[in-house]
């Protein structure tokens, strides 16, 4: 599995920003209430990031030879996929939160609590993105591991 690339993350963030801004614009044009993220959202995003890193720590210990017990390869793969999903969803949510924030800042009259909640959501989404990338890095094999030997012998 390849590591998450910067271009994909930036693309998702830009798509999310456009989506968030247009969604707020459409809600306001329909005379409906605009979306204001709840305070529980950034707290939850940060907690999920912490859980993802917590799952990746045993995988890192196993890949660097510091584990006391062998690690199930299926578990390691699940953690790697969870880390990749966290980085991608963190990127998309960062874009959406930035789109919401951009819409709120473009209005002449805005409640300050809505701006701070959008900023907090952006920070939580960035924390999830960083945690996903860090956990993904923790799940990779170090250079010169047995995996390189397997590639050479099968060729």
Describe this structure in words.
Helix content is 75%, strand content 0%. The chain has 155 residues and is mainly α. The radius of gyration is 20 Å and the shape is elongated. Mean pLDDT is 88; it is low at 148-155.
Blueprint of the fold:
Blueprint: H1 6-29, H2 40-63, H3 73-105, H4 112-138, H5 146-154
Helix pairs in contact: 1-3, 2-3, 2-4, 3-4
Supply database-style keywords:
mainly alpha, 155 residues
The general outline is elongated
Overall SS class = mainly alpha
How far apart are the first and last residues' alpha carbons, in Å?
19 Å
Helix content: over 70%
Please count the helical segments. 5
Rg (CA only): 20 Å
Strand content: under 5%
Unreliable segments (pLDDT under 50, ≥5 consecutive)?
Answer: 148-155
Number of strands: 0
What's the order of the H and E elements? HHHHH
Mean pLDDT: 88
Report the major sheet: none
Nutshell version of this structure?
It contains five helices and no strands. The protein has 155 residues and is an all-alpha fold.
């Amino acid at each position: 599995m390849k590591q998450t690339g910067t271009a994909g993350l930036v693309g998702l963030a830009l798509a999310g920003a456009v989506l968030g801004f247009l969604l707020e614009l459409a809600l306001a044009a329909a005379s409906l209430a605009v979306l204001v993220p709840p305070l529980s959202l950034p707290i939850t995003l940060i907690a999920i990031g912490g859980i993802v890193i917590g799952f990746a720590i045993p995988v890192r210990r196993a890949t660097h030879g510091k584990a006391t017990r062998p690690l199930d390869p299926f578990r390691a793969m699940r953690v790697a996929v969870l880390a990749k999903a966290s980085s991608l969803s963190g990127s998309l949510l960062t874009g959406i939160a930035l789109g919401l924030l951009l819409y709120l800042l473009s209005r002449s009259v805005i409640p300050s609590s809505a701006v701070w909640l959008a900023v907090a959501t952006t920070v939580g989404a960035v924390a999830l993105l960083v945690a996903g990338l860090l956990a993904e890095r923790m799940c990779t094999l170090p250079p010169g591991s047995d995996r390189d030997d397997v590639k050479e012998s099968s060729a």
